[in-house]
Amino acid sequence: MTLFGRLASLVTALVIVALPAQAYETIATHAWVYDMTTQTVLLDKDGNVPVPPASMSKLMTIEMLFEALDDQRVQMDTSFGVSDKAVSFTALGGSTMYLQQGDRPTVAELIKGMIVNSGNDACTVVAEGLEGSEEEFARKMTERAKALGLEHSTFTNSSGWPDPNQRMSMRDLGMLSAHIITTYPELYAGFADTEYNYKDRAPANADNRNPILGVVSGADGLKTGHTTEAGFGMVGSVKQGERRIVFAFSGLTSSADRAKEAEAIANWAFRQFALKTVVKAGLEVAQAPVFLGDAQTVGLVTAQNLRLLLPAGAANAVAGDVVYTGPIKAPIAKGTKLGELIVHIPDLGDQRVDLLAAEDVGVAGFTSRLSVAVGYLRTKYGL
User: Fold this and answer.
1) Domain contains 152
2) β partners of residue 350
3) Phi, psi of 303, rounded to the nearest 5 degrees
4) Are residues 260 and 327 in the same domain?
5) pTM for the full predicted model
6) Which residues of the chain have pLDDT under 50?
7) Which of 103, 117, 295, 309 has the fewest Cβ atoms within 10 angstroms?
8) Are 116 and 167 in a shared domain?
9) What pLDDT, on the 0 to 100 scale, is given for residue 313?
10) Residue 22: per-residue pLDDT
11) What is the pLDDT of residue 140?
12) C-beta atoms surrounding 340 within 10 Å
């Protein structure tokens, strides 16, 4: 051991009063709920399990068309031809925007056809228009999903038509939705459209299937899905105040249950959690000892506001730890990072904020340093 001694990792406790949320018992077989504002997962029920996504996988097709618009490979008035394969979806009985041979729908029209009408034909036209064939487009969908960090998504078609290799997890659907919302905010606004009737062909199919639009305050997306294998599912997003949530669930037995579950999840996410400023920037939370400094301690202040999504319900305590390595050797410059404040929220993980030196601390004078040295020798050798 040197004269300066061995530095020790120190932890001091800070307790913040909070309230735990009541856990939500979803009737969905798979579900994932995410607070985008604080990047907090609120609910995860087998959220990483790949399942049949049905029409919810259209979000990947929509994302790839949005990317093409962003890259200026296409424009809103770019038109695509309609193949026999695209037209066949109307006869097969799936959701459609009722395209016909000879139509030349624009990108703007196809976006509405995919979002509002959930058109399988619209997705096929987009796939063939961007990549030449749906098979190549599906391969690119899988590549794009991997690039976006969607680890449990594979595609064989652009529409979500049943296929054993067409799979997505609820987490992947939620994270894809968050990506669309943040990356393409102007284009995302179209998910709130409630009606679209291409060439006035099918007024009965013109309504957006999203059951919470106009029902839940702040609901503005995203996509429903249903097949016999997948059951009824939905990916939704709601913004209220400063907070936005996205959620995805599947496996319900009816469209009525889907509507009730979507509204219940949104209400739970906003009523059982509140966004709070727990610690303000510049707040001194601890004093750390200083070695060979002209002051014995240095204040540790928070580098920025610490805003947390705190659960509500029955009284409980959220523990916070002030962590630093000390004593801290002088000199110390004001604003130097010296440690972290780690706040532990039950069931929601840890949140961290840097702790900085509150003031400058200079090196101690000769007399003070000599006194420290003498004290060290006395302690070590019993002098």
Assistant:
1) yes
2) 344
3) -75, -30
4) no
5) 0.81
6) 1-20, 314-315, 370, 374, 376-377
7) 295
8) yes
9) 55
10) 60
11) 98
12) 17
State residue 316's pLDDT score. 52
Q: Are residues 52 and 140 in the same domain?
A: yes
Q: From the centroid of its chain, how far is CA 273? A: 16
Domain count for the chain, please give it: 2
Counted residue by residue, the chain has a size of 383
Output the pLDDT for position 344.
79
Give 304's contacts (C-beta < 8 A, 6+ positions apart): 281, 353, 354
231 and 142 together in one domain:
yes
Choose the final residue of a domain: 214, 243, 271. 271
Strands 337-345 and 316-326: antiparallel
249 and 102 in one domain? yes
* Domain, as residue range, for 43: 30-271
